Model the fold of this input.
Amino acid sequence: MAETLNLYGAPESSNATTIKNYFSEGAEEQLEIGFDRTGTKRIITVVGQDGTAAYQRFLYVTPDGKNFSIADYNQIIRQVKKDAGGNIEALRTSLYRKGYLTEKDYNTKSDAGLSDAILDASNNQSKEIAEALLFNPNATGELTTFDKWLNSQVSYGGGGPTQRGQEITKQDANQLIDAFTVDMLGREATPAEKKTFFDSVSAEMKKAVVKQRTVGGKTVESGSLLNEEDYSRIMADTIKPSVRGTPLEAIASGTGSIAQSISSLKSYASSYGIKLSTQEALDDVLGGLTTGGSLSTGKLNQQQQKIRNMAKSFYTNLGDSIDNGISIKNLATQFANTKSQVLEVPSESLDAFDKDIQVALRNNGKAGVMSTKEFEKLLRNKPEWGKTKNARDEAAGYANDILRMFGLVG
Done:
């Protein structure tokens, strides 16, 4: 197990085994190469924590290139600036020429922009070190200082970046689509799905380019890179054929978010007096999934609104109640209790789809629902009423009253 490091104490020896210890299970502060919160940028982070700056880690290489330390984002910024000494402008220029510092931040000498550029470059340097040692069996464990690593990077023409794009490795793409399919379908992506996603996202990245130009002394950018919603859309399109080709029962009985959303939508529809089939629910779920919208955030707002609108068209007399958040299920429960008492049937067997309750809910198109008195009258006119104990007791009571009128009973 690797010891916890103090950046300003004695750094550790820069050998492959020591660095690998930090990525080994059981390390005091176990590290991993994962994704930031957006899911689009690979970073080194503490295992079990999200990709916020507080838990991101960097491999800081000492100026002699012989030792290293584990640094957080504040420490790496301070150390890189400290190592630059009186040559901060040279550092700024190098970061600008390598594409890490924007023209605007370079010209305005923005300290915040410089810090962001250091973080971005240090993250890439740290990943290269870690990936080489973890995945390259021929790696020797030799380290490169930040300034030497930065100088070895490709420079942009014209002294600074004029165009920015994106790239994704197959490894990164596989991790993204695997995480997505596990969440959505409860399984990892198939080789065909991995290839489709990698090819699709790579093709879109080639088209998604940000161009910079200077107009009147100001930097103007045009175009946009892929964002989290774009990744969700591409991943959704990737798995959609597989979902369509899987038996409906297998999808609905699964453990992924799609199965959970199908169940949730059907239950929600039932609460508004709408019978939604599994196929209809799946179509609605995939509709939200494909657009990278509600399902990807764990919500089904758009689909639920569709159900509420449908309920208002079925129960035209209850539109105001539905708009005020009153579900058909809540209204039906009151009538179920009444029917249970009057016709002596278990209330658990009754729901909004019961034909008598439907009559009460629709109320012949009149505003609101049928009154309890009207509903009881409706039930007493049914043949089932005559078979109840309530009816027999009531009939016996009437008979006794008549006999009393004739003086035949006391």
